[in-house]
Predict the structure.
Amino acid sequence: MDFDLSEADAERFAQRISDEIHGYETLDALAQPDADESLSIRDVDEHDDPHNAYITSFTTEGGDGPLRGVDVAVKDNLAVAGVPMTCGSRVFEGVVPRRNATVVARLVDAGARLVGKTNMDELAYGPTSETSAFGVVTNPADDERVAGGSSSGSAAAVAEGSADLAIGSDTGGSVRIPASFCGVVGFKPSWGAVPRDGFVDLAPTLDHIGTLAPDVETTALGFDVIGGYDARDPSSALARDIPVGSCADGLTDVPDPEELSFGVPAELLSTHVSDHVRERFEETIATLESSGATVESVRLPTVDDAVFVWNAVTNVEFAAALRRTGLPLERPGPFDLSRLDAAAGRQATAGVGFGDIVRERALVGAVLLDRYDGRHYIRARNVCSTLADEFADALYGHDALVAPTMPVVAPEIGERKPHSYDSDDGLDVPLAYNTRPANLAGVPAVTVPDGSDGLPVGVQFLAERYEDAHLLRVARSFEKIRDA
């Protein structure tokens, strides 16, 4: 800030501020931090973790509840009391939360047995897991290929069977990308459906917490537990428009194929989709139609421009979050002081330790803020509303939109260029091209394996905002059609 103070004003204000600032020291004595909970943390053994899915291994025994007997893995950008939280970065080693994130507390209350914190791209920025400071997560379907990102370890844990359910986050596809590559179900709810208290934001207006599991039923059961309003995250008030808590029960009565109508967005099935994925997707569409479902082409015109819309929103919000060292300015609290103290201390040490992607993207965001006064950000946020309207128009008369989740199968390790994630085969669009629009519009999206042989290919279903329960019923219908 520059108030253009005269020398006399500067001296006067400096003295007043100096006199006042000592009073704030009383806040340290008034603060009542949460009690530090200690858990038995185990070293992650490569024999027990063949795909590098975990950063930290531990076990909490679950009690009674809907998740009793369910092993759950949690992405390492969600707080588990007494367990280190790195966000996939060496910068945050030593951060040990004193209390659980809201979704973690809900899992524990529901009887889940937590089995570890999963590996991820650094600060959740990356679609392959190759930006993680703890090494790449390999794909259980093929050890030479990436698991996808940024919720890489969560998808690999479910695919390899070390977890029955996993929690991930999705800012531009980070639940659905690895779920598609690893051949599991990945669900990104409507924005606001799951509270983000105790979660480390990448871009708050695009961040979603979601579930990954072997099947739609377990995915929905996890959503029923973690979703719903929480006062610590005002945005979760939107969850009141969703029947959270009964989504899994709703899967017992799903639509018959002849009752279903799907729209295929032309923009998500364009030239960026590989021939192999296109062929697999066309087989899926043929299966839907032969089962009695109606399928027709629809349009989402703004998707063609969504790359820079997503970049503008994400990079500006990311840069702003790094600048304020995690200060939760928009949330009512109470807060866990351990993360704030550790994050501030780490970032004060010359900012060392972050990888190239984090540094480059933060610098891009800083330029958009400082040089251009955030104009691109505001325009991008306005385009999000346009895209939401286009989704509503495309969905009119349809139960869901359907498209390939990813334009390619899981790339080999090192195949993608580290900054753009373009490939050497000429594909010049981001891996997340088909997944980012749902984040920009805030609509629910779920990826389900197509069931064919070979490397996994996911089929993505999308619905109108707050139609999460209906979308999960549609996804379950597809599972039944696929397996018939």
